[in-house]
């Protein structure tokens, strides 16, 4: 399904088309596509016990060559497709096209989860939805690659990113705000992870001309409750004449659990 947009202030950032807005919009497109794929009018899913169930993202991969090419009033399209890759798993692809040229592609994997009788986001579990419709197809190659990388990074396998040198930056702590960082389902919003990593990067280093994202992968393992603090720590980094790369992990302070790994590649606009 194709949706047409015109870039205004909500869609733009200092470095062009806002990555954070793009994640949120494509997340919404993914959610709407789930309902359509299941033959439902609304995005209202319940597990086999009758509890509300939500599609939680497990992995996201953004690749782009031109978010900074989008300026105010520019028209662009988002072409979205979705498939079911398991009993409660789905995978979507979103192609961002400006002037007939693809400038970015966003891949998103999700799984349905439920809180059950628990009120805490620390006790979210995989949901069972026997009544979920739609044919299950083999997992696309990109989805398989994302799953494999997620397993390696979660296990802190430094060989997964051998060109990154160990980082010495001090961890940055954040207290997520319920009015800005959590969504309507009371989860820490998946797009907030990207925002925290970018804020931490800006604390670690500041450039006269901020670099532009070229690729980003986010792998999610857990969530937090309102009032819990996050620690963002850089694990590895590299920098050259083309740009910079880093691997960061996000942990919740209440129990030290790693709830996300994020790999980032950015390029310089000018030096």
The figure for the number of domains is 1
Helical fraction: 10-25%
CATH superfamily: Hotdog Thioesterase
Residue runs with pLDDT of under 50 for 5 or more positions: none
The topology string of helices and strands comes to EEEHEEEEEEHEEHEEEE
What CATH architecture would you give? Roll
Query: What proportion of the residues form beta strands (DSSP E)?
Result: 35-45%
CATH level-3 fold name: Thiol Ester Dehydrase, Chain A
Number of helices: 3
Rg from alpha-carbon coordinates: 18 Å
Mean pLDDT reading: 94
Major sheet: 13 strands, antiparallel
The end-to-end distance, rounded to whole angstroms, is: 39 Å
Number of strands: 15
CATH class, named Alpha Beta
Question: Given the helix and strand composition, which structural class is it?
Answer: alpha+beta
Overall body shape: globular
Explain what the structure shows:
By secondary structure, the protein is α+β, with helices and mostly antiparallel strands. The protein has a single domain, classed as Hotdog Thioesterase (Thiol Ester Dehydrase, Chain A), CATH 3.10.129. 18% of the residues lie in helices and 38% in strands. It has helices at residues 19-37, 141-154, 190-204; strands at residues 2-6, 12-13, 16-17, 45-46, 52-64, 75-84, 89-98, 101-114, 125-126, 165-166, 172-174, 212-220, 230-239, 243-252, 258-267. The strands form two sheets. Strands 1, 4, 5, 6, 7, 8, 9, 10, 11, 12, 13, 14 and 15 form a 13-stranded antiparallel beta sheet that branches. A two-stranded antiparallel ribbon has the order 2-3. A hairpin with a 4-residue loop joins β6 (75-84) and β7. α1 runs antiparallel to α3. It is globular, with a radius of gyration of 18 Å. The mean pLDDT is 94.
């Amino acid at each position: 399904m194709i949706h047409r947009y015109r870039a205004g202030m909500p869609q733009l950032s200092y470095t062009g088309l806002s990555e954070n807005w793009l994640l949120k919009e494509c997340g919404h497109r993914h959610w709407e596509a789930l309902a359509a794929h299941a033959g439902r009018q609304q995005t209202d899913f319940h597990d086999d016990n009758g509890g509300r169930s939500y599609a939680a993202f497990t992995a996201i991969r953004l690749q782009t060559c031109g978010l900074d090419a989008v300026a105010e009033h520019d028209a662009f399209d988002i072409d979205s497709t979705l498939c079911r890759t398991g009993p409660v798993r789905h995978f979507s692809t979103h192609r961002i096209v400006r002037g007939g040229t693809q400038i970015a592609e966003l891949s998103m994997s999700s799984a349905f989860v439920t809180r059950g009788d628990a009120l805490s986001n620390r006790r979210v579990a995989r949901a069972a939805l026997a009544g979920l419709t739609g044919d299950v197809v083999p997992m696309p190659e990109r989805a398989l690659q994302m799953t494999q990388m997620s397993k390696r990074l979660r296990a802190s396998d430094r060989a997964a990113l051998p060109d990154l040198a160990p980082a010495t930056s001090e961890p940055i702590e954040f207290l997520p705000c319920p009015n800005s960082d959590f969504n309507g389902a009371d989860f820490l919003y998946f797009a907030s992870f990207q925002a925290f990593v970018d804020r931490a990067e800006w604390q670690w280093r500041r450039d006269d001309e901020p670099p532009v994202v070229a690729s980003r992968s986010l792998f999610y393992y857990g969530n937090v409750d309102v009032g819990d603090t996050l620690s963002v720590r850089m694990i590895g980094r590299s920098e050259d004449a083309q740009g910079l790369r880093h691997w960061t992990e996000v942990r919740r302070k209440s129990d030290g659990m790693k709830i996300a790994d994020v790999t980032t590649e950015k390029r310089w606009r000018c030096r």
